[in-house]
Design goal:
The structure is a single chain. With 336 residues, the chain is mainly alpha-helical. The chain folds into two domains: 210 residues, Rossmann fold; 89 residues, Tyrosyl-Transfer RNA Synthetase. The protein has 13 helices and five strands. β1, α1 and β2 form a beta-alpha-beta unit. α9 runs antiparallel to α12. The chain binds tryptophanyl-5'AMP. Tryptophanyl-5'AMP binds next to β1, α1 and α7.
Length: 336
């Protein structure tokens, strides 16, 4: 007997173009699971507005992100690919979960601490409540597995806590409790200028971050200019975070292990490692970048893909939301 496929779900914010960190830690891994899972992937524009965005740029980046998901190999016919704001149930379930999350647990979120520290005097409430919307994203589709980079671990764990809490309160089978799915290598790609910090879209120093829109020359320049560590021997250890980051990048992109890569650098300098890493990154990024450019030239076709995805997503999300509202005791709207 054929058993129903489990659901794999993840999402990316359309703020700035996708980075090499997003690509290696998340997006690039997803297409390989297409035949085994029911796949749900989306661009989270409603998360993006937790910090002020330029509207024209947000629109363009949303298209670019969705084109990138297709360019890396997610098949819009086999997966549910959509934009979060096209499915109003995310905001609706988000509110329900906001009413079941606790101030203390949201206060512990390290991403809130980081981002609110940079937001100045007026910290948007949405930045604080953001993990509730992310929990809604996941629980709406009864997702079993959530592949993310290490920086999202805490949010997925909070989602699990809220799901268990609500299952206990409203009947055990209200929500599927999702599992975190971290990569073994590349879960945390570090900044090229400060390898103790993660590579981030919003880093003010453009040399820190490789974007998937960068030209081959820009990629090579950024990787060859990466800050490395004292000494000159290429080793894979915690006190050499710059060298380790380059080895992680190479290994995540080629599928090799650090142990199998290291022997080729015996007696060689950091410069060799940088050169090879730059070549591996260019080889991975260039075809995606070119395919994104091709897809971006036809927004009409992208719109059609997104409409199909959103139609499918809305139908599923509406079913989950109706189940939740019923358990909460909301009177259903009567038709006619
Ligand atoms: P976002 O948009 O910041 O990042 C998208 C994905 O990229 C991973 N990532 C990294 N991986 C390795 N090294 C890095 N330097 C690096 N930087 C980012 C992230 O872990 C993530 O997997 N809140 C989420 C988006 C989201 C979501 C969801 C994810 C909203 N709803 C539901 C999963 C399920 C975010 O801001 O990711």
């Amino acid at each position: 007997m054929k058993t129903a496929r489990k659901t794999m779900l993840s999402a990316v914010q359309p703020t700035n173009p996708i980075t090499l960190g997003n690509y290696v830690g998340a997006v690039r891994r997803w297409p390989q699971y297409q035949s085994d899972y029911d796949m749900v992937f989306f661009g989270v524009d409603m998360h993006a507005i937790t910090l002020r965005q330029d509207p024209a740029q947000l629109r363009e980046q949303t298209y670019r992100l969705m084109a990138t998901l297709i360019a890396v190999g997610l098949d819009p016919d086999a997966c549910t690919l959509f934009v979060q704001s096209h499915v109003p149930q995310h905001a609706e379930l988000g509110w329900v979960l906001t009413c079941h999350a606790y101030m203390g647990e949201l206060n512990r979120m390290t991403q809130f601490k980081d981002k609110s520290g940079k937001a100045g005097a007026n910290i948007p409430v949405g930045l604080f409540a953001y993990p509730c919307l992310m929990a809604a994203d996941i629980l709406l589709y009864d997702a079993h597995r959530v592949p993310v980079g290490a920086d999202q671990k805490q949010h997925v764990e909070l989602t699990r806590d809220i799901a268990v809490r609500m299952n206990n309160a409203y009947g055990g089978d209200l929500f599927v409790v999702p599992e975190l799915f971290l990569p073994t290598i590349g879960a945390r790609i570090m900044s090229l200028q400060d390898p103790t910090k993660k590579m981030s879209k919003s880093d003010p120093n453009p040399k820190s971050t490789v974007f998937l829109t960068d030209t081959n020359k820009q990629i090579e320049k950024k990787i060859k200019g990466a800050v490395t560590d004292s000494g000159s021997e290429v080793t894979y250890q915690d006190d050499k975070p710059g060298v380790r980051n380059l080895i992680d990048l190479q290994c995540a992109l080629t599928g090799q292990s650090p142990d199998s890569v290291l022997p080729q650098y015996v007696g060689k300098q950091y410069g060799h490692l940088k050169q090879d890493t730059a070549a591996v990154v260019v080889e991975a990024v260039a075809p995606v970048r070119d395919e994104v450019a091709r897809l971006m030239a036809d927004k009409g076709s992208l719109d059609a893909v997104l409409k199909k995805g959103a139609d499918r997503a809305r139908e599923r999300a509406a079913r989950t939301l109706a189940r939740v509202y019923d358990r909460l005791g909301f009177v259903p709207p009567r038709s006619g």
